[in-house]
Structures are given as C-alpha cells and as structure tokens.
Specification:
alpha+beta
C-alpha cells in the first residue's frame, strides 16, 4: 500500500506541476497567436525524498535525465472554450527525437497524430473527458478525476464565466445602490440552468462530480447549485433584496440581514470576504487578498461549529508589471472532517525569467516540488521557450481521418486499437524501453499491477 500511495501522489503531482508552463502561453491578445519553440523536462532529486524504499529514485533520476519534450506550439485564445492549440514536436531520448507527434486542440476537439499510430489520428471529444476520467477513480482508486481538472482548464474557465458574467452584470458597479429581491430571484433561475438544463453535455454535473466526489459532497453541491432560489429565500425571507454600500474604497453587500460580501480595492491591492450560510447550518466563507507580488485565498465550509473543509492557497514573489524575473513559493493545503485522511500541504518553489518586456522574448520557468517530509526539492520541472507573436492566419484548419471518440472506449474499441496500433507502438517505444533501468521497470510494473491497469489492458 505504501508504494501505491506514493505513486498516486506522484502521478497527480507530476501532472499538476507539468501545467506550470501554461501560464507562459497566455500572452496573445484577441485572435493573435503566440508561438513558442520550447523544451520541457522533468528531473528527480533522490536526496529530496526520504529513505522510505517507495521507489528506486536514483534509477528514475538517470532515466528522466535522458528524456525531454521539445517542439513548437501555437496558442490562440488560450484557456477559453474556443481556444486553439497546435503542437508539433516529439519526445526526445538522449538528445534525439524518438517519438514524434502532432497535437491539435480545437474548441472541445483534440487530435493526436503520430508515426507510433501508423500515421493515423486519434480523436478526443473533451465534453466526455470528465466522465472518462472518473472511471479511473471509481474502478482503480486513482485520482484521475482531479488530474482531469488540471488537464482541461477550459472547463473551469467556462463554468467560472457562466456564473461570473451574469452575477457581475447585475451586482457590479460603483456607488451605493440596491438590487430588488425579484431581480435576484431571476438571476437565481438563470444560474440554475447551468446545472439543470445542459442535457447534451452535463458539463456542470461531471465537473462538480470530479471536483467533489472524493469528499462525498458532489450530490449536495449540485442540488444547491440547481436550486439557488431556495438559498436566496433562506438569506432573504422577507424579500428585502440586496443593499450595496460604498464607503471609500470598500463596497459592502448586505442580503436581507446578512452581510454576504465585502470588497476593497486600493493602491493596487484587492481583497474580499464572502460569507454564504444556508438553512441547514452550512456556511461557505471565502477570503482573498492580492497585493500584486503575493496573494492568498482561503475557503472554509462549516456545519454549525464543525470545519468540514478548509482549503488555502498562498503564493509570494509573484512578478508585477515590469518585472523580468521572479522567484517565490506556492503552498496549497486542504483539511477538514470531511476528508478520510488529512493530506500534507503541497509546497512548490518557482523561478521565472524572460529577457525582454514584450514579445519576442526568451523565457524560462523552473518549478520544484518540495517533499513534505524533507522540505527539499524532490521533482523539478524546467520549461524554456523562445516566444513570438504571430498573426491569426498562422492557425490553419487541418483534416483528420478518425472521428471515433477515444473517450467512448469499450471492449470492442480496445480490441480494435490493440490490433491496429500495438505493433507500431511497440516498435516506436522499443528504444525508450531499452533505456529503462531495472528499478524503473520494477516500479512501473508494480504500479500498473496494483492499480489494475494491466488487467484493464488485458495483459496481466
């Protein structure tokens, strides 16, 4: 169990940390394209791990030092639901391209084409992604549903925008003002539809299920989000509506008799406090502070006096306007009585630099995962890129042959894919397999066996 627990955490952390370069891609304005010629690598530091025998760390260090991901990636409208990402590159082994491939992301469509797939393309429909990734959680006990949230950030953008835009449209503004109960009720009905009326894709259902199923809170959250007017009546039973009071740089929002929100913007610093109790004794409290070079976010869900869930995020050393470099730490912590076990906080250290203020420029980003037992770097992700601005015409349409959604994978599809691609995949990855140290092979096989992945693939 120790090995399996280690690999579950390592798998989640590696994939989460590997998204760190994404912050460097979101540079384009409008429909412009940002092009990055990049190299991405991941290093293991054996001395940063405790001497616990959970893995052959030095073998992993030697193997990962031979690997890198290189290529050129074009991004357009990054992270939005209509984003475009086109990557042409490959996995490099000992400095030589070993597994070339093309990745094309178009709205909710994804395509991968590679010689390892006989030159064919594989289609992924992202509307089915969370449902597919939940299977790993249900059947193998892996945190695949949480990994999915990081691998598909467009879903978070879509839901955040779906809630934020109508709320800001009704409640935003300057100066003291009032919002009637009837207007708030109409807003609640509009927001209910995000959960209740998306029959084709059920995006909110699968998103919040992935986010909260491990806490046993997904059904309750979806029930409340699909019936927000009940929450409104609990806070405003006399239908007084909302009063917004402006006092200097601070706005205070009072719903009925309850202060639900307070926001202060002053001298480049922003802070807010959100408090939403309900009729069942639950209360959601969120606090946020951003001073430019540091930010903190804390979320608490309580039931009467019991802290059911507490989540915090803190970051320092963040770059501000005009900074060409930055160095700091990020810490994420989660606790509460709703968790079956109390996880250790996740701490990251980062270093960022670029050589010019505006595109084109070269940039580098290094992110260390600090092991909770040693507080030393155990994994380091390194991303380096030469970035430039390109016109919208640089992103062109391409034709792909296979439109069967991989996320509809079943026994029949699995047999077909194995027959079509297993020989070419084996031939392509053979040079990489031959470089595997014995410890890496042992750790990988043990992980695949313990999680049931070998049985799923039918090769146990």
């Amino acid at each position: 169990m120790m090995k399996r627990s280690f690999w579950k955490r390592l798998l989640a952390l590696c994939l989460c940390v590997c998204l760190a370069p994404a912050c460097a891609l979101a540079q384009e304005d409008g429909d412009g394209v940002t092009r990055s010629a990049f190299t991405l690598s991941l290093a293991v530091h054996p001395d940063g791990f405790p001497n616990d025998g959970a893995a052959h760390y030095r073998d992993w260090e030697a193997f990962l030092n031979k690997l890198s991901l290189r290529g050129t990636v074009d991004v357009q409208r990054f992270l939005t639901p209509v984003s475009r990402v086109y990557l042409e590159g490959g996995l490099y082994l000992n400095g030589e391209e070993s597994v070339p491939f093309v990745y094309d992301g178009y709205h909710s469509y994804r395509y991968i084409r590679s010689e390892a797939l006989r030159g064919d393309s594989i289609h992924f429909q992202m509307h089915n992604f969370f449902e597919f990734m939940l299977k790993g959680y249900y059947f193998m006990g892996l945190p695949t549903q949480l990994i999915a949230l990081f691998l598909y950030p467009e879903a978070t953008y879509y839901l955040a925008d779906s809630y934020y835009t109508p709320i800001a449209g009704l409640l935003g503004g300057e100066g003291s003002r009032t919002v009637s109960h009837a207007e708030l009720y109409e807003l609640c009905e509009q927001l209910d539809l995000i959960v209740n009326e998306d029959f084709d894709y059920e995006r909110a259902y699968f998103y919040f299920t992935s986010l909260l199923v491990d806490l046993g809170a997904s059904d309750m959250a979806l029930s409340k989000l699909g019936d927000l007017e009940s929450w409104l009546f609990a806070l405003d039973p006399d239908e007084q509506g909302m009063t917004v009071t402006q006092s200097g740089d601070t706005q205070t929002y009072v719903l009925g008799e309850t202060q639900v929100f307070e926001k202060t913007v002053s001298d480049g610093q922003t802070s807010f406090e959100l408090y939403l109790p309900d009729e069942e004794g639950y209360a959601l409290a969120v606090s946020y502070q951003n001073s430019g070079d540091a930010l903190s976010l804390a979320l608490r869900i309580t039931l009467e006096e019991e802290e059911r869930l507490a989540v915090s995020l803190q970051a320092d050393g963040l770059p501000t306007d005009g900074d060409l470099s930055a160095e700091g730490t990020v810490e994420f912590a989660i606790s509460g009585t709703s968790l079956p076990e109390q996880p250790q906080p996740v701490r990251l250290a980062y270093r960022y630099a670029r050589d010019e203020q505006a595109l084109p420029y070269g940039m580098s980003l290094e992110v260390d995962w600090l092991h909770p037992a040693t507080q030393s770097p155990a994994l380091t992700l390194c991303y380096r890129a030469d970035m430039s601005a390109q016109p919208a015409s640089a992103m062109v349409e391409r034709v792909y042959d296979n439109q069967n959604d991989f996320f509809h994978l079943n026994e029949s599809f699995m047999s077909e894919y194995k027959e079509l691609y297993l020989p070419s995949l084996a031939a392509t990855f053979l040079p990489l397999v031959l470089e595997l140290p014995a410890g890496v092979i042992s750790d990988t096989v043990a992980f695949l066996y313990e999680t049931g992945i070998l049985a799923f693939l039918g090769i146990e």
